[in-house]
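User: Is it possible to get a 3D structure for a protein together with its bound compound? The compound here is 4'-deoxy-4'-aminopyridoxal-5'-phosphate. I've pasted both below.
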Amino acid sequence: MQQKLSDRINNLATSQTLAMAAKTRELREEGKDIIGLSLGEPDFNTPDFIKEAAIQAINDNYSSYSPVDGYVELKDAIATKFKRDNGLNYTRSQIVVSTGAKQSLANIAMVMLNPGDEVLLPCPYWVSYADLIKLSDGTPVELPTSVESNFKITPEQLEAAITPKTRMIWYSSPCNPSGMVYSKEELRALADVLVKYPNIIVMSDEIYEHINFVGAHASMAQFDDMYDRVITVNGVSKAFAMTGWRIGYIGAPEWIAKACTKIQGQITSGANCIAQRATITALEAPVSKIQFMVDTFKERRTLIISLMNEIEGFKTPEPEGAFYVFPDISYFFGKTIKGHLIKDATDFSLFLLEEALVATVTGDAFGNPDCIRISYAASEAQIEEALKRIKLAVSEA
Ligand code: PMP
Ligand code: GLU
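Assistant: Yes, that's possible. Here is the predicted structure of the complex:
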């Protein structure tokens, strides 16, 4: 038998965040003491009040299929959350609950894109965006940024990238991987360009909204002249330390929400019912219940930035949110360190894995080949030890 797979899967890249996590597990099984700073996953346990809600849901016999787009009570909790935290009005028919924000994104790509449609991706962008777009026959169009531009695009850059084929723009703020946060004024300036092109739909990924160290979170959908063409994506993985529970959701124009429900009805039948019930409790809780995690991430950010600034060759802008640093490490390109020729960020990331036993992710995975991503969703002791090892490993450069 010929082992022949579809072109679709053959053309798809493996998720490099998950690949690095798998490699870390493998090396640990071999007995290597790897510090894993590759995966964007809070190192906290899910808060007890959420776990108790899940146990209650099991005991209450929540074990059947839920409505495809989510329980009505959950959609109401999401609508209340959107209003409370973001000032956004979404009704039940505009909300779709999915198996993680990743599935929300996959739904969006599948329902919005036709072959050749262009999707603007300000760089660096989250790892799965480009491949989800390609999987739906769309064409990702990268908008480069750098440390110097604080990893943000300008309105002029946005306008210059728009063509008659532009169908969407996808971005996250706070940004994974750069940690940058677009202010309300910056979003308004981008909106001023987008209002001139009414066929462009915006995917605004706000999954890190609470992990913001610089001020109020701003949503693109808050602008009345944009609301009808913004899909707001969010989820509980990051804010509530619920990555494995797999619950994400969107607030969107009704015609898009309906389409996402239709596709989900063929692909998953809807998200896990117990996790959905627990998410009602998570979203109804006051934001103050998760503030301790945000405060801890902020302390760790200060720590990691101060340690990184001691290492020559790392240019690291201070992130404003999320839990990643995204240093430009192009200083090392062309150098040979401990016998490793560093040609690019991928070589550098592999060098750190082999010589410092620290797992990071190459910036290539996020459309920025001069950088690497380091997650500081790890304990202070791990961060200190990791940076000590990195400093030592590169000291011969
Ligand atoms: N968007 C961004 C920016 C992310 O970092 C992640 C990673 N969790 C996701 C979406 C997907 O999140 P999940 O599927 O866990 O809800
Ligand atoms: N979002 C996390 C990250 O960027 C988890 C990995 C993933 O979902 O791909 O590392």
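The pocket of glutamic acid (ligand 2) is lined by residues 15, 17-18, 39-41, 102, 127-128, 176 (CB under 6 Å). Residues 291-308 form the longest helix (18 residues).
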